Amino acid sequence: MGGRPAQVHLAKLSLANFRNYASLSLGLQPGAVVLSGENGAGKTNLLEAVSFLSPGRGLRRATLEEVARIGSSDGFAVHAEIEGPYGSCRIGTGTAGAAPDGSEAARRVRINGDTPRSAEAMLDWLRVIWLTPTMDQLFTGPSADRRRFLDRLVLAIDPAHGRRAADYEKAMRSRNRLFADEVRDDAWFDAIETQMAETGVAIAAARGEMLRLLSAMIERLPAEGPFPKALLALEGSVDQAVARMPAVDAEEEFRSRLRAERPRDRAAGRALEGPHRSELLVRHAPKNMPAEHCSTGEQKALLVGLVLAHARLTAELSGMAPILLLDEISAHFDAGRRAALFDILEELNCQAFMTGTERALFSSLEGRAQFLTVSGGTVRSA
Ligand SMILES: Nc1ncnc2c1ncn2[C@@H]1O[C@H](COP(=O)(O)OP(=O)(O)O)[C@@H](O)[C@H]1O
Ligand SMILES: [Mg+2]
């Protein structure tokens, strides 16, 4: 698998009015960063701040109002100094100083003092991947959560994916609005459905390609690793079409299906088919069992294995080891698995932020990690 990927790391993180942090300025080291502290101390909040260094709504999918510290009136700010193979860079993001309407559009991004064309420009400098306890229900919960997970995996290796997904959503919403407004203008529908078909097929193709690459990566990993291998598949009519035929034909097929299904979709008020309904299927390879039928512990191990394989893939494709945010990561694992996890993170050369209530859970990292104690919105060296 070649040499170790170049590390990208946050050298400094500063927060203003972010959740329970009034202000924070933190020097960070490459490698593992362990955050320990009691419940409610601000550990997850800190990871969330780092997750804002990638496009989207962060690891809690919060609104910007929720993120701004209660009682502050000037919005929040996250600043980071990043060091990587392309040199160092400063990224700032937040709502501080922005229009006070609190609208979703108001998260601003600045890179080295300039406003980039879009938030996706952050992906030129770093890729952030996270795993949180809410994702413990990923395999058993709603299918939309798995799609969102899948799309984040795609985004980390293919920065254009966010744009594609947004364009598809926009076209789909326009079509739903035509149904709601009882518009029956065929030309209008045709135009919107053409957009849906183009962007929808592009989404399915990007997802399919990512799954192919990720599966190949998993295939290359040693059979007896500490985390079980996953078998991945995508189920949906557009996904199947994309796998079977050239993209132009898949577009034509999806477009004619949308046209044919207008009466049905009109009755439902929305499109009942398309990549927004695709299902990510995950199997536990060693047991050959659907992930949703595995035990809680097995599901967690499967998910961690998947995220680590994806981190490896991201590093290989982007030339930058991703930054990992692993919230409450060691809760489910025994000491052996934890030690194996830490070894893999070191091999991946990632800066990995890990949280836990007990520092003792990370004892095998003593001497090779930065240990920080979080308490009441403050952070100090442990
Ligand atoms: N917008 C906010 N302003 C101030 N405090 C907040 C805000 N949002 C959450 N908090 C507080 O942050 C704390 C939770 O922090 P969190 O990082 O989830 O803790 P933990 O260390 O357990 O991961 C809670 O006490 C919560 O009330
Ligand atoms: Mg937490």
SSE layout and pairing:
Layout: E1 6-7, E2 9-18, E3 21-27, E4 32-36, H1 43-51, H2 64-67, E5 77-84, E6 87-94, E7 108-111, E8 128-131, H3 143-157, H4 161-180, H5 186-220, E9 230-235, H6 237-244, H7 247-260, H8 262-268, E10 279-284, E11 289-290, H9 296-318, E12 320-321, E13 323-326, H10 335-348, E14 352-356, E15 369-375, E16 378-381
Parallel strand pairs: 1-12, 4-14, 4-15, 8-13, 13-14
Antiparallel strand pairs: 2-3, 2-5, 5-6, 6-7, 9-10, 10-11, 15-16
This protein binds adenosine-5'-diphosphate (ADP) and magnesium ion (MG).
Count of alpha/pi helices: 10
Q: What is the number of beta strands? A: 16
**Given the helix and strand composition, which structural class is it?**
alpha/beta
Mean of residue pLDDT values: 95
Q: Which molecules are bound besides the chains? A: adenosine-5'-diphosphate, magnesium ion
Shape: globular
**Major beta sheet, strand line-up:** 8-13-14-4-15-16
CATH level 1 name of the domain at 140-293: Mainly Alpha
The CATH topology annotation of the domain at 140-293 reads as Glutathione S-transferase Yfyf (Class Pi), Chain A, domain 2
Question: N-to-C terminal Cα separation, in Å?
Answer: 35 Å
Q: What summary fits the major beta sheet?
A: 6 strands, mixed
Write up what this structure looks like.
39% of the residues lie in helices and 22% in strands. It is α/β, with parallel strands linked by helices and 382 residues long. Strand 2 and strand 3 form a beta hairpin. The mean pLDDT is 95. Magnesium ion binds next to helix 1.
Short description:
With 382 residues, the chain is α/β, with parallel strands linked by helices. Helix content is 39%, strand content 22%.
